[in-house]
Amino acid sequence: MSDEMEEYKQEFIQEAREYLDVMNQNFIKVEKGDVDAINEIFRMAHTIKGMAGFMGYKNLEELCHKLESAMGKVRDGEIEVTEELIDVMLKAVDAIGEMIDRIEDEDSDSVDVRDIIEALTMFMESREEEEVADRHELKPATANLRVDVYISEDCVMKSVRAALVVEALSEVAEVVGVIPDESDMEKETFDAHFVVYLNAPDASVVEDTISKIAEINRFEVSPVDGETVEMGQAVSEEEAEEKAEGAARAETEAKVEKTEKRVDPGRKDKKKLESIRVNISQLDTIMNLVGELVISKGRLLQIASEYDIPELKEAVAIMDKSITSLQDEIMQIRMVRVERVFSKFPRMVRDLARKLGKKVDFAMEGLETELDRTVLDEISDPLVHLVRNAVDHGIETPEERVAAGKDEVGRIKLAAWREKNNIIIELEDDGRGLDVEKIKQKAIEKGIVSPAEADSMSEDEIKMLIFSPGFSTKDEATEVSGRGVGMDVVKTTVERLGGSVRISSEKGKGTRIRIHLPPTVAIVKSLLVKVANETYAIPISSVVEALYVGEDNWKVIHGNPFLIVRGKLVPAFKLRELFNVRNGRPEREVGIIVEKEGEKYALIADTIAEQQEIVIKPLTGYLAKIKGFSGVTILGDGRVVPILDVSSLLGGDRLA
Q1: Is-catalytic flag, 389?
Q2: Catalytic: which of 389, 393, 396, 589?
Q3: Where are the annotated segments for Disordered (predicted)?
Q4: Is residue 113 within 8 Å of residue 73, measured between CB atoms?
Q5: What CATH number is associated with residue 545?
Q6: Among 69, 176, 434, 475, which residue has the fewest nearby CB atoms (within 10 Å)?
Q7: Annotated catalytic, 46?
Q8: Is 393 labeled as catalytic in the residue annotation?
Q9: Lowest mean pLDDT among 195-209, 360-374, 423-437
Q10: By the 8 A CB rule, do 571 and 560 touch?
Q11: Residue 174 predicted with pLDDT over 60
């Protein structure tokens, strides 16, 4: 395969997967009677079919064609939407996804889908004879608009361009007829001019649609008073789509490069391309280079301050603004909507609920909320664990819910929103809630806590035990949720990203799990603190406040140090002790008040050096196993500074 075709194949794979994500979401909406969702699935199946046909993937093309045909009959009210029909269509979507995976790995779409095609055919067969009869009884249609289109003289394939115009117009209006007829179009026996008759509610939409198509010299849209189009000229929507599909293939094969658009001088400017696809690895490379610039910027700022050179200070100040702007733009480019991950959950919840014999109404909010791509990718699997557990452990069976005085349909809501400097992701259900006593007993049985420790814990602390490795209140593993091996991954992953997890639950009423995340983990603002001669970085997102600590600020209870902050006791962790620093401490220290799971703690350092933006460099190999650090950064003077993992330190990890 040539480099050009390989590039086209990768674009096809990426676009097809995006369409499949949306199709999965829309099938859930179809079950609820959403007409727009039906139309969108139809269009996407049609688009994938056309791309697959050009690329030569005949099995994929056939399956998409069958799915498209079935959706067309659903749209026209010829097939009733049932759970069985949606099941078959979802199997078709899964098979399309499997084919896309094989195309990427093996350049082959050889997946056995005969049973799926047969099932779709069975749903359609009952209407086949009526459909054939209808095709022979097409009635003349009336138009309210006439569109005269003049293709550029240097257009290589005029029939392709004409068919693309008809396809584009069919998406915004009813195509009543085309002159010349289809055979003349295909033979290119017409000149550069052709006419399309439309039944359209708005002429401006028609004008905007044509203005976006390349190689159109000019066009004219004029009203007609209910003009009837001759039968030989009339085209159905299906015919228009088939013509456009063939045209799209021919255009791609011809590799028409000329894209200059010419219209009448009096027409408004056409909309320009506003977005392009960029390889993720290229974005990562640019981000790394920006990180190096940020480090160099810090070094220059330090030199300018040390040597007090006015010209250098001025130049560095200008460069600082430019680098900061570049950094902000790159960070924004890396931001993606949480919808990218959330989109797979409606289908997953539907399948799990049916498998478990439960009824679940799943809702999502805040799909437009944005997160750094890296953060979103990292949080994807933990969210899968949470949603699966909500369906399996949280929501009761319809019989149990009715017996408890609830609606037989359980409700789960997944929401995301921005709150100050954090992104909040919240999962809430109205299921059975957490049984605190059962959690306590299981934790003792598994040796997670001792009986004495369990008795001294608050209810909130006991609830957090569900995030302990291997914890589960179920006596037997299930195919859906296993033995609870996923919940500890949720907490570990979130905390590694600099976030936190909170849980609230009431037995018999439901459970709410709230995740706090930083919007990005690449370049962050941090507080640089000193302990003896060493410097450490604490992400600002973890810091509530900082204050000086004197001898009268301390109180020891049962051997544990507490800091007195405005009359309240805050558990204190001395970094000197955690890092085994043995030389004398200063007379006055600083307390960095941080927050974890809604509780405040104090990290005690010698002094605060400064606040600075830092580039996070991950630890690899053996270093990645050392607790207490989430990475390192390089300061402007070349020093390597460890970045503290606040959650790990507050868990009592001691570094040798």
Answers
A1: yes
A2: 389
A3: 237-268
A4: no
A5: 2.40.50.180
A6: 475
A7: yes
A8: no
A9: 195-209
A10: yes
A11: yes
